[in-house]
Amino acid sequence: MFNFSHALSTTIAQATCFVCGRIAGGRNGMRLISYTLIVILLWLPPSSTYGWAERRVLPGIAEFVVPWRGTLILGTWKGIWRLTTPDAAPELVAEGMAQSFELADDALFLETEIGVWYLAAPDTTPVRLAEDDDLFVKKFGGALFVGTDGGIWRIVTPKAAPERLAEGWAKLVEEHSGALFLGTSDGIWSLSTPDAAPKKLADSSARFVEERGGALFLGTSEGIWLVATPDAVPRRLAEGWAQFVDESGGVFFLGTDEGVWRLETPDAASELLAEGRAVFIEESGGAFFLGTDEGVWRLATPDAASERLAKGSARFVEERGDTLFLGTSQGIWRLATPNAVSEKLVEGVARFAEARDGIFLLGTDHGVSRIRAPDGTLEQLLEGGDFNSLERDGAFFLWSNDGIWRLATPNAAIEKLAEGSFSFIKERQGALFWGASEGIWRVATSDAAPRKLAEGQAWFVEERGGALFLGTSEGIWRVATPDAASRKLAEGKAKFVEESGGAFFLGTNEGVWRLATPDAASELLAGGSVEFIEDYDGALFLGTSDGISRVYDVTARVTALSTPAKSAWWERSLSWLPPNTLVGPLAVPTVSYQGADAERIVVPASHFEVILAADSVTLSERRERNDFQQSDKIQSVPIGFPSTLHVAIRDSWGNEYEYTLEQFVLPTAGAFGALLLIVPPVLLLLALLAAPYLRFCHSLIMNPFLRGIGSFGVVPLVLTLVPLARRHLLRRYRRALLASDDIKGWAERFVPPEERFTAAAFAARLGQRSRLLIVGVSGVGKTAFLWHLTACAAEGDVRPGGAAPLPIYLPLGRYAADIGVEAMIRGQLENLGELHDEQFVDWLIKHGGFLLLFDGLNELGDARRDEIVTFVEQHSQHNWVVATSQDAYARQFGHWGAVETMPKLTRSGIEALLRHHLGEARAASLVATLDEQQTALLALPQNLELALELAPELADEAAGLRLPDSEEGLFRAVFEQQFAAWREAGTGDFIDLLTADAYAMLRDRAPATLPPEIASPLIERKLMRQLGDAVYFRHDTLRGYAASAWLAGHWRTAIEQDGAQIDANWDAMLRFTTARLLLQKNGAAEVEALLFALLERAPDRSAVLFAWLEQEHADAVASYRDKFDRAFGEVTRTRLTRAA
Question: Which terminus has fewer CB within 10 Å in the chain: N or C?
Answer without folding.
Answer: C
